[in-house]
Amino acid sequence: MKKKSIFILIINILFVFFLGCAKEEKKVITVGAEISLKDSLNQIVEQFQQSNKNIIVNIEFDASKLLRKQASKGTNLDLIILASKDDMEELEKAKVITESKEILENNMIVAGRKKIDKLEEIKGYRVAIGDPEYSPAGVYSIEILKNSQLFEEIKPDIVLARDVRSAMQYVDLYEVDYAFIYKTESKVMKNAQIVYEIPNEFHSPIIYSCGILSGKESEEIKSFYKFLGNGNSREIFLKHGFKVLDPRNKINVEKMKNKGEKK
């Protein structure tokens, strides 16, 4: 009888242990995010997890175009945030994304140590930009230079960086004289400053979109997707210098597809 009682006790302990493990099981979601969101998004994830103890959010930061290519080839990503409307639209057309919305807008500036009154004053100096093959910031930078009729003159002095944050670091570490970066990146500079604010008419609108990848529409992912547009997230984005767009500006790819088929 004594052995039987001990055996039953052990079974009960194991049952309680495994039950506890089941209760503590957490869902993991993986977000691919544009590198310029690093500081703001880390804070947002921290807030999200405070009220969603059962969800772990892992973020992979990289240049938007690299994240788009990663998503196109099949990936572990559940949700993606890009700084380029074109890249998000490509994913939508390829049916890689099932739902997306525009959440933020940014501006381009020139960073350096000496104020300039006009863009022409960067001629003859080394200028860092994000590599346009990987970074939307690089695409915007080339667009600005071409619209300003400066590209051919400045081209020999352009230093390509992997992404916009790397371009910011080049100028902040005195490796170049100027850098074309997002205005939000200036908030983490230590040795450089905004020397010129580029008029918006010189480049396409810098719109950040987030989208849920096809087959990844779980409640946990939808919960974080929704959280990106709530009051707490909006305050954090604003604090980091982003313009926050109307969260109702939402695109449901499946609805668009069905609408097109009816026509």
- First-residue to last-residue Cα separation: 77 Å
Quaternary class: single chain
Order of helices and strands: HEHEHEHEEEHHEHEEEHHEEH
Structural class: alpha/beta
Figure out the total of helices.
10
Total E-strand runs = 12
CATH class of the largest domain: Alpha Beta
Outline, from the CA principal axes?
Answer: elongated
Rg value: 23 Å
Largest sheet descriptor: 7 strands, mixed
Q: Give the count of structural domains.
A: 2
At CATH level 3, the topology of the largest domain is D-Maltodextrin-Binding Protein, domain 2
Are there runs of 5+ residues with pLDDT below 50, and where? 249-263
Strand content: 25-35%
Examine the secondary-structure arrangement and name the CATH architecture of the largest domain: 3-Layer(aba) Sandwich
Average pLDDT, all residues: 88
Q: Give the fraction of residues assigned to helices.
A: 40-55%
| CATH level-4 homologous superfamily of the largest domain | Periplasmic binding protein-like II
Written account of the structure:
- The chain is α/β, with parallel strands linked by helices and 263 residues long.
- The chain folds into two domains: 27-105 and 206-262, D-Maltodextrin-Binding Protein, domain 2 (3-Layer(aba) Sandwich), CATH 3.40.190; 108-197, D-Maltodextrin-Binding Protein, domain 2 (3-Layer(aba) Sandwich).
- It is 41% helix and 25% strand.
- It is built from ten helices and twelve strands.
- It has helices at residues 2-24, 38-51, 64-72, 85-93, 136-147, 151-154, 164-172, 219-227, 231-239, 253-262; strands at residues 27-34, 55-62, 79-82, 97-106, 108-112, 127-130, 158-161, 178-182, 193-197, 206-213, 243-244, 250-252.
- The strands form two sheets. Strands 1, 2, 3, 4, 10, 11 and 12 form a seven-stranded mixed sheet that branches.
- Strand 1, helix 2 (38-51) and strand 2 (55-62) form a beta-alpha-beta unit.
- Helix 3 runs parallel beside helix 4.
- The longest helix has 23 residues, at 2-24.
- Residues 249-263 have low confidence and may be disordered.
